[in-house]
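Complex 202.
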Amino acid sequence: MEKLILSEDEIVRICDRLGKEIDNKLEENANGVPILLGVMNGALPFMYELVKHINTPCQLDTIKVSSYDGTSTTGEVKVQKGPDHSLEGKDVVIIEDIIDTGITMHFLKEFVQNTYHPKHLYVCILIKRESKEVKFDELADFTGLRTDEQRYIVGFGFDYYGLFRNRPYVFVPSIKDIKEWGAILDEDKKLTEQWKKEHSSK
Ligand code: 5GP
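Predicted structure with guanosine-5'-monophosphate bound:
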């Protein structure tokens, strides 16, 4: 690894603080209990740690959007899966891993508000990058860590071509890491293609 951004202990401490901040805001109302809406796949480890520190009765849900192709943003956000619960008139917290250029969050907030009509819509993020390429100056209501780090980060939900979400900490990978992971991805691609070839001929 090149640099540790958040250790396991720091993540737990951050989630404890954020949980208390969220508890102070969330309210059950006549339309039902609050919903924590995790943005798949990156925010799921964060949502599952965070929810352990929230005492207000709430339900978990997910929305899936895509804007990244490998390690660079495409600038275009698409919704691939919507929430399973009704959000109408409820307190909803979008749980996201990072705000970088702000493109994803700008789109998400408008989409969730205009499509599902929650009463209050909050945003909770693990990391706010003080980005050099801000497109929308989106601020979260609850923020874990602010960083000037401009390099691509991985671990605890953050992926490198789908890999390394399962590391329990967040870090900047080294050149050596990236080379090793490239080899893992090439090997995986070969195995998948071989499997497809064998199964398509039967
Ligand atoms: P934005 O739209 O604000 O530029 O970027 C937000 C999305 O990009 C996040 O949902 C996250 O999935 C992805 N992203 C931004 N920076 C990084 C990064 O350094 N590492 C990883 N793995 N994903 C990132």
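The CA atoms of residues 43 and 97 lie 5 Å apart.
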